[in-house]
């Protein structure tokens, strides 16, 4: 069999982990996580990290490997996965990749542009501008040095705007000058699947999962990392709302419902992203395992 990377992606809460584990167990292979938050230690509840039993059922990679204060990027992920895959393909004809972090999946499947590495000093300086002068000032500076990227940028996405600014600060060249969008060839076959279901069903699952996270101790987990709330690894749905509750700017009920709402919003963004990818095959979770195995 041709060496094959089976990508199982889809919106948050749809059941990617169960599907990936079942496919991997049938094939006797391993799973590469493509989740930009499950890669961090100490926040398993809010990131819906696979359970100890799930991790024991199939060997996973890129789960719980970084401290919360460690910097990591899609470019690093691409490099690390492409270094690991040949070793896995020595043992297996197929490897499963599972996760909903769109940039991580795209980095491995399509490649990302060769963007300069940003030094810690420059990164700290760029984030200092965000913290002391605000997002509007970061956006103003990006518009000044890189109007081309500014035109297409999400003006509310602090991480992306800061990244564009730090690339300019590091290289003296606009971020847009490095964005070629050229797809890189990979020495293995890629089969890319996205799980889908009616939105009402998905949103009900999301709401239920948030309630389950609360039962499992999301509040206690968020309190344990509250002193690190300034870190980018915690700038994510679930923790932001709980931090607002701890700060007194939101009551508990509002925070819980806001987590549900913001998770649904994120799921819609994921679905919009996937809709632009002509290589994706859509499957319902109830039949996905059988259909994937039949297509190999």
Attribute tags:
296 residues, alpha/beta, Rossmann fold, Histone, subunit A, Helix Hairpins, six-stranded parallel β-sheet, 13 helices, 53% helix
What is the fold's blueprint, element by element?
Blueprint lengths: L3 E6 L6 H12 L3 E3 L18 H6 L2 E2 L12 H18 L2 E5 L3 H8 L10 H14 L1 H11 L1 H6 L5 H14 L17 E7 L3 H18 L1 H7 L14 H9 L4 H24 L4 E4 L1 H10 L2
Parallel strand pairs: 1-4, 1-5, 2-3, 2-4, 5-6
Helix pairs in contact: 1-13, 3-4, 5-6, 5-8, 6-8, 9-12, 11-12
Structural account:
With 296 residues, this protein is an alpha/beta fold. It folds into three domains: 4-113 and 184-198 and 271-294, Rossmann fold (3-Layer(aba) Sandwich); 120-178, Histone, subunit A; 200-268, Helix Hairpins (Orthogonal Bundle). The chain is 53% helix and 9% strand. It has 13 helices and six strands. The chain has helices at 16-27, 52-57, 74-91, 102-109, 120-133, 135-145, 147-152, 158-171, 199-216, 218-224, 239-247, 252-275, 285-294; strands spanning 4-9, 31-33, 60-61, 94-98, 189-195, 280-283. The chain has a six-stranded parallel sheet with strand order 3-2-4-1-5-6, sandwiched between helices. α2 (52-57) links the parallel β2 and β3 (60-61). α5 (120-133) crosses α6 (135-145), α9 (199-216) packs across α12 and α11 packs antiparallel against α12. The longest helix is centred in the last third of the chain and has 24 residues, at 252-275. It is globular. 34% of the residues are buried. The model has no long low-confidence stretch (mean pLDDT 95).
